[in-house]
Design goal:
Radius of gyration: 24 Å
Helix content: 10-25%
Largest sheet: 4 strands, mixed
CATH class of one domain: Mainly Beta
Number of helices: 1
Cofactor: Cu cation
Protein name: Plastocyanin
Strand order of the largest sheet: 2-1-4-6
Structural class: alpha/beta
Subcellular location: Periplasm
Order of helices and strands: HEEEEEEEE
Keywords: Copper, Electron transport, Metal-binding, Periplasm, Signal, Transport
GO molecular function: copper ion binding; electron transfer activity
Number of strands: 8
CATH superfamily of one domain: Cupredoxins -  blue copper proteins
Strand content: 25-35%
């Protein structure tokens, strides 16, 4: 009889685990899908794989962009390119992060001056 009680307890635990794994990410037909406030958050650009990911970000005046250097110890930098409304530049970095706040609207092209072809754009609205 003791074995039957243990089996019942295990069965109840498994059943509750399955119920707890139910997909609740879809809204009911009468509910609106949740919206993301990610556009209000300051974006992060990851410097990895000899590229900037994402290569283009769009922000509002007064927001900052953070570049996170995560390319297995390969040195990179972030430097505004010709035509940018204002200048910005990080030091040469193999890790860590650099942030810049954009106070003027415009399109800010930037590059890694150490690696031809590594380029990105910040669009400030």
């Amino acid at each position: 009889m003791r074995g039957l009680g243990s089996a019942t307890a295990i069965g109840l635990l498994l059943a509750s685990a399955v119920v707890g794994c139910a997909d609740t990410s879809k809204p009911d037909a009468g509910q609106a899908a949740p919206t993301s406030s990610a556009s209000n958050a300051d974006p992060t650009v990851v410097v990895s794989g000899m590229s900037f990911q994402p290569s283009t970000v769009t922000i509002r005046v007064g927001q900052a962009v953070t570049w996170k250097f995560d390319d297995r110890g390969i040195a990179h930098n972030v430097t505004s390119a010709a035509g940018a409304p204002a200048r910005f530049a990080s030091t040469i970095m193999t890790g860590g992060s650099y942030s810049h706040t954009f106070d003027q609207p415009g399109t800010y092209p930037y590059t890694c001056t150490l690696h031809a072809g590594m380029a990105g754009t910040v669009v400030v609205q």
